Structure formats: structure tokens, C-alpha cells
Amino acid sequence: xxxxxxxxxxKQLKEKPQKVGKYMRHNAxxxxxxxxxxxxxxxxxxxxxxxxKYGLHYCRHCFREVATSIGFRKFN
Length: 76
Prior knowledge:
Shape: elongated
CATH class of the largest domain: Few Secondary Structures
Mean pLDDT: 83
Largest sheet: 2 strands, antiparallel
CATH architecture of the largest domain: Irregular
Number of domains: 2
Helix content: 25-40%
Low-confidence stretches: none
Radius of gyration: 18 Å
């Protein structure tokens, strides 16, 4: 049983509480203090293309969608 997301594995082990305990003890993600995984988009959760200037914390995709509603204007 391998998976990229540990939460998917918990769905498979729902009926076996002892195995869930052992799995979480050994495979739960650790708390991050630095790096890419620490900064996520507050809207969609992406870690790439993160804009944290002015406390925005949006990825570049979400920023393009909400920029005009926040008050940013495009200058040529």
C-alpha cells in the first residue's frame, strides 16, 4: 500500500485502528519550520508561485483571479 498523500491511506485503514495508530506514528508528516511546504496559498493550497508580499499569501494563479477585487490595477 503506497500513496502520495497520507490521508488517502487513512481511508483504506479506517477499519483497523491498531494499524492506523502505527501508520500515523511512523508516517505522519512532520511540522515544517522552513522551506516551500511551509508557505501555501490561502485560497487553493498550492505551494508553487507563492506571493507573500503585503501579506497576500496567494499563488500566482489565484492572484490573477482576485487582483482587481483586492484593488490592484494593471499598468502598461
